[in-house]
Design goal:
CATH topology of the largest domain: D-Maltodextrin-Binding Protein, domain 2
Strand order of the largest sheet: 2-1-3-10-4
Order of helices and strands: EHEHHHEEEEHEHEHEEHHEEEH
Strand content: 15-25%
CATH class of the largest domain: Alpha Beta
Largest sheet: 5 strands, mixed
Distance between the termini: 41 Å
CATH superfamily of the largest domain: Periplasmic binding protein-like II
CATH architecture of the largest domain: 3-Layer(aba) Sandwich
Number of helices: 10
Bound molecules: ligand DPM
Shape: globular
Number of strands: 13
Length: 323
């Protein structure tokens, strides 16, 4: 693809979803770029995606092929936008022809958290009563929490973070608690609603969780140069390892696959797991190596888990979801 030659005064157009979280993230990106490039101007273009429109169907049933990204991608390919800001975990591991992952921003806390109804404020996941109802539409959270807390019941919940909190707090009780990403709550200024941060030993986070992924046209040097200002090296290594692990397992974001990564100096450690929906089988392992081998480590770990039964679990889940 040929790079677009344009006058420096041309405004850079940033595509985003319209949810409150998406806007907070996009405005953060725009403000950092304004600081780094005071001579350039930036325009935010708000778009709706399929994921914003279909709110009543379980995420796992819709599939993951760019649910939250497609309309933004079409915008870039048609030249109506220059780059798109996504939660990295919502960005598929295979991008459409002509687009690329331009940069990954510094990761915030990638953990999941329990948010609960006021009346449960002295309870935790361990001490909530038998049958307490936990809202999540993430099969990853469901499978891991079911594995460690078989006394809990899980129920689907959809909608933006604001909608979910409203559902949790509704006068007529539908959920005792819900599981959300720490990063999303913090970005929206709702840190005080985080009741319990779930440790990685219990819930491995989603691939890319807690970081932003910026997608742009493949080889668009002007945009890639700007995005360098936002790129975070350690997070990029971690994202490469996590995303290649997921890609190799052929799992979209809607299957129970979780990860954890640690970078120490030149060393990267990648832990990954695949769980069955009933939470009974849970296959987990860890690999480590040089950061420059991040992608290869993702592939190696995927194959290691496949050899231990992950393939059978994933095939079962795909058959289950398609029903
Ligand atoms: C994806 C999942 C969820 C979002 C599935 C998963 C959570 C869905 C749910 C792929 N995208 O995590 O296993 O629990 O019903 C999403 C959130 C953020 C990005 C909100 C959240 C914010 C945090 C971040 C939705 N995508 O997970 O609480 O930047 O990672």
């Amino acid at each position: 693809m040929t790079a677009t030659i344009s006058s420096p005064s041309r405004p850079i157009r940033i595509a985003t979803r319209k949810s409150q979280l998406a806007l907070v993230q996009t405005h953060w990106v725009r403000d950092r770029l304004k600081e780094a490039f005071p001579d350039r101007s930036f325009e935010v273009q708000e778009m709706s995606t399929q994921g914003d429109k279909i709110l009543d169907v379980a995420l796992s049933k819709i599939g993951d092929k760019g649910l939250f990204t497609k309309e933004l991608e079409v915008g870039m390919l048609e030249g109506r936008a220059d780059f798109a800001v996504h939660s990295l975990k919502d960005l598929p591991t295979r991008l459409p022809e002509g687009l690329m992952l331009g940069c990954v921003t510094e990761r915030e806390n990638p953990a999941d958290a329990l948010v609960i109804r006021e009346e449960n404020k002295d309870k935790t996941l361990e001490t909530l009563p038998e049958g307490a109802i936990i809202g999540t539409s993430s099969l990853r959270r469901l499978a891991q929490l079911r594995h460690y807390f078989p006394h809990l019941t899980f129920k689907d919940i959809r909608g933006n973070l604001n909608t979910r909190l409203a559902k949790l707090d509704a006068e007529e009780k539908e959920y005792d608690g819900i599981i959300l990403a720490v990063a999303g709550m913090e970005r929206l200024g709702w840190r005080d609603r985080i009741h319990q941060v779930i440790p990685a030993e219990i819930s491995l986070h989603a691939v890319g969780q807690g970081a932003l992924g910026i997608e742009c046209r493949d080889g668009d040097e002007e945009i890639l140069n700007l995005l360098q200002a936002l790129s975070h090296q350690d997070t990029t290594y971690r994202a490469l390892a996590e995303r290649s692990f997921l890609r190799e397992l052929e799992g979209g974001c809607q299957v129970p696959i979780g990860v954890n990564t640690v970078v120490e100096g030149d060393n990267l450690t990648l832990t990954g797991m695949v769980a069955a929906l009933d939470g009974k089988r849970l296959i987990k392992d860890t690999v480590s190596g040089n950061v420059n081998d991040a992608e290869k480590m993702g592939i190696d770990l995927a194959n290691l888990l496949k050899g231990k039964g992950a393939k059978e679990i994933l095939d079962e889940i795909f058959a289950e979801i398609q029903r």
